[in-house]
Amino acid sequence: MKKRIALVYGGDSSEYEVSVKSGKNIATEIDRERFEVYEVVMKGADWRVLRNDNGFSVVDKADFSFILPNEGGIGGTRIKFDKVLIMIHGSPGENGLFQAYLEMIGMPFSTCPATVSAITFNKYACKCFLRDTGVKLAKEVFLRRGESYNVKDIAEKLGLPLFVKPNNGGSSFGVTKVKSIDDIQQAIEFAFTEDNSVLIEEFIEGREMTNGVYRDGNTLISLPVTEIVPHNEFFDYEAKYLGASSEICPAKIDKRLSDQIGECSQLIYRHLGCKGVVRVDYILRGDEIFFLEINTVPGMTPMSLIPQQVRAAGLTMAEFITKLLELD
Length: 328
Fold this sequence. Notes:
Elements: E1 3-10, H1 16-29, E2 35-43, E3 46-50, E4 56-58, E5 66-69, E6 76-79, E7 83-86, H2 97-105, H3 114-121, H4 123-130, E8 136-137, E9 140-144, H5 151-158, E10 162-166, E11 176-178, H6 184-192, E12 197-202, E13 207-216, E14 219-222, E15 226-230, H7 237-241, E16 245-248, H8 255-272, E17 278-285, E18 288-295, H9 305-312, H10 317-326
Helix pairs in contact: 2-3
């Protein structure tokens, strides 16, 4: 009997459109011989299941089920899911809010648990959690909205250039590479348009690498490492989703370094208590590997990095998604 899967995308952040693209792409890749798939679009309190008749059904939030109308529109069948495949980037699908709801109603899902999602979505909290693991981290300054700060002190601690970014968020929304002390305040104000806390980090000159990790049964597997060569100043939204970057997979680095990155990704995965597939971003300065951030609901658009790494590993996306959905 086929497992019923709710493929959920949308959400409430600036990443809504990216999430929709990820969801629509994954919908074409899932093995329909194994899984009965229903697309669920979420926006605020509006949770809709898309139907084959081009209509929609409203999700019953009491148990995350819905009514599938009978032909002719009289009566219907209540559909309950076996698992939720989360493709929401940003809130509420990557910060633990949706996961907490699913945990409360006892519904299995594909991503990290709620507490892990909350920690990893908060860039500063994630760095604090990893600080004693030996993973190399960039120096930072953390600010909350309304907190006083001195741009000269920030520049003195971190040097220039530096990066200013929303503490919670993804897809590089609200991120600025700052080269002048005169631009720090404006960059901070810009980051605050996306979040109530801001992370300011030193700039590390090096090559940007990223690496997917997932669990296959009881075995952790690192996907091939990708090197990202942005055509812009850094790996911003345009570079990520509009083709303004070159992505080399597998990365042209020696096997020793590639293995070290994979081992670092697995260490981070285990230490944080991750589940499903995650993507870990790094800066490689010589032989030094600096952690940037972790994405627990990585992009799955046709241009996204995880699908590229999956193909480089010799898997089809259908095979890969099946592995994720069959995990307990």
